[in-house]
Write the structure tokens for this entry.
Amino acid sequence: MAAESQAQVAGQGGPSHGRRILLIWLILAIAGDLLIWFALGPHLPPGNMTTTATEEQGAIKLMSVLSAPVLVLVLTYFVYAMIVWRRRDGDDEDGPPIHGSTRVQAAWIVGTTVIVLALAVFGTVSLWTSHGAGAGEGPAPIWNPPGAVSTASAQQTPWAPGKVLQVQVVAQQWRFTFRYPGLGGFETTELMLPEGQWVQFNVTSIDVIHSFWAYQLGVKADANPGVNNVAYTKPTQTGLITVRCAELCGLWHGAMFDYGKVVTLAQFQAWARASKTELASVTSLLPPYATTYDSTAIKQLGPVLQKLGLTGAGGGYYPPQDPAQP
Amino acid sequence: MSLPVRVGTLLVAFLAVVGGAIFVVIQYFLAGPVVVDYTAGVTPGAGQQVSIVLQEDPQNTVTNHPDWVSYFIQDPKTRQWVHTTLFRVPAGATVHVTILGYDGCTPLRNPFWGKVTGTVGNVEFVNGKPTSVLNSYATCSVGHTFSIPSINLNVPVASPTTLAANSNLCGTSPCTSGPHTTVTFSFKAPTTPGDYFWQCRIPCGLGYLDGFGGPMQTIGYMTGQMEVAS
């Protein structure tokens, strides 16, 4: 029995295990990939509400399609070996020695190298074409959509359809607020976006480090005090948005979430007009718009506050040039 | 080692482990601020009303953190002030809130929170005067805030306004005298039972990272929960 097994493994007169495994793997891999692409793919996160979400979903689909055959190969070999090369009754001999195969090793190295390099190229192209794929690109992004602007004065230029909509995301324990500098500079707790328009998120924090994660938009950018972290997206469908903080930020981090909407252009413009009017009384109290949020920029500290020795908000602000804290 | 000694040792060790576990459960999981119950005698549902009374103090002389600012809640039965920030209201009830602001003024980190939202009429009454926005930078006007983010409730709690008052704040908690401002407002409790956290948005945890540590992150001081009961 042992000699027979050894002969079979060595391919001396036995069935061609390699061909069997290859055939089983090929059938399962093709079936798995078709299922992933057509059945599972459309349901993979984060959906396809925006250009960036669609790009991310496509990347996850591609990664799944590429990795599934590898998983199937390992499992096929594993199950095949357990069934075909299992120990028989009365067989107490050692298995045949295994020798390295230069051809197999070379094929493995070349194959995996090609896959990794191809994915690197795919990822880079994807970042380029989707203008950062919804990730925070820092204060000086390099994958900008046409019309994106970086200075505070340019971001305050009145917005019109076709231009990049500027939205400042202000993170604070434990709520996000959103400021629209091109729509009169009002700040609100509602994230409202127009369908079919490019959006530039300028993400910052006024206290500790948070992370702005708008799941359905496929946007995720860290919110750091004193830093403007820019991310882009273009909504292609109307619908609800869930915003969560993705950086542990204190006692109520788990409750730091918000909801928003992507609406039609007409609905967005109506909402913007109403919000500007409704929030006018508090908009006049906000600090001048800047790409980061510095409440010490407010130059109207009252006489009683000054006499009390106060120079700004309590607790000390987190100056960009000096992150050290007491 | 004899059998009785071994059995005795085993029993002692067993009791020590069980006792330690009980201590941990009591000390860290069961101990904590009490919940002030405003549901007694109130039938849940629309049309029901409860009145809750809080005060915020510049210090806290009833705990081992005397320099931490703190809220207190008045027990509706005994009228005694309780050092807690947990309270229970009926689902769907109209909640009438009175906050006695004994602490002095501090500018808001984000002036946006100077706007009253989520109350009936989006208004609060400062010493009886209807107010919808407080400018915490131009005048000495805001001591703390009372905010429940999940129902978009934000109320800047007014402070004593004059230099003299701010230099002579109440020094013993809970405060019963001294300069203060009375803020009243009403809001609708959610119809869905659950715990809704509330917080202050003034960075009043002096000495901590950006003022948002210590009392700002500790239940029983400047943050807590509103328990909505079915």
Q: What stands out?
A: The mean pLDDT of chain B is 89.
